[in-house]
Amino acid sequence: MAEESTYSYQYPAEGILNMLYGTSGAPGFFPMLQSYYGNQLENMGGADSSPYTYTGERIAGFAPREEYAMEMADSAVGQYQPYFDRQRQLTEQGINVTQQGAEEAARMFRETGQAQFDPSSYTAYEDPYTDAVTDKILEDLSKSTALQSQGLAANQVSQGAFGGSRGRLSQEEL
Predict the structure, then answer these.
(1) pLDDT digits over 102-128, tens only?
(2) How many C-beta neighbours within 10 Å does residue 153 have?
(3) Cα angle for residues 115, 118, 123 (degrees, 5° grid)
(4) DSSP assignment string, 98-133
(5) 145 and 173 in contact (C-beta within 8 Å)?
(6) 22 φ, ψ to 5°?
(7) Where are the alpha helices (DSSP H) in the chain?
(8) What contacts 48, CB < 8 A, 6 or more positions away?
(9) Average pLDDT value for residue range 73-93
(10) What CA–CA distance (Å, rounded) separates 15 from 121?
(11) pTM for the whole thing?
C-alpha cells in the first residue's frame, strides 16, 4: 500500500500578512502595487502621464540678469559696421593699387620686348678711365711678351737649338 503524504503549511506571521495585504487603516504592498500598475495601464499614452508624454514647458525661464545680458548683446549688434566698412574700403584700395602696378609692369614688359639687344650696349655704363687703364696694361704685356720671345729666339739661334723640340718647349713656357 502506498503511503499517503501529508503536507503542512504554516501561515505567515500576522505582521508580514499585514505588510503584504494591508489592514483596514493602511494599505499593503500588493494592493498598492496593483493600484500603481492599474493607473499606469489606464493612463498609458495620455498627456502628462509619463516623462515621454509631458506637454508642459521643457526649458526653465531665464534669470533677470540673463535677460539683461541678452538685451545688452542685442543693443550692440551693428556697432561694428563702421569697422567692416573701413576694411572694405582699404581692401578695394589695395586691389586698385595692385591692378595699377600690374598694368604698369605689363607696359614696361612690352616696351622691353620691343627693344633690340646690342652686345656693345654695356659700354655706355663702363667707366672710360678703367677701359683706358686696362687697354694700356694689355698693350704693355703684349710688348713684353714679344720682346721675351725675340730674346728667346736669339738665344736658341746662338745655342743651335732654334726650331727643335727644345725651342718649342721653351717657347711654350713663355
Answers:
(1) 999 999 888 877 777 777 777 777 777
(2) 15
(3) 120
(4) HHHHHHHHHHHHHHHHHSPP-GGGGGGGS-HHHHHH
(5) no
(6) 85, 175
(7) 14-21, 29-43, 64-76, 81-114, 128-159, 165-173
(8) 54, 55, 56
(9) 91
(10) 126
(11) 0.29
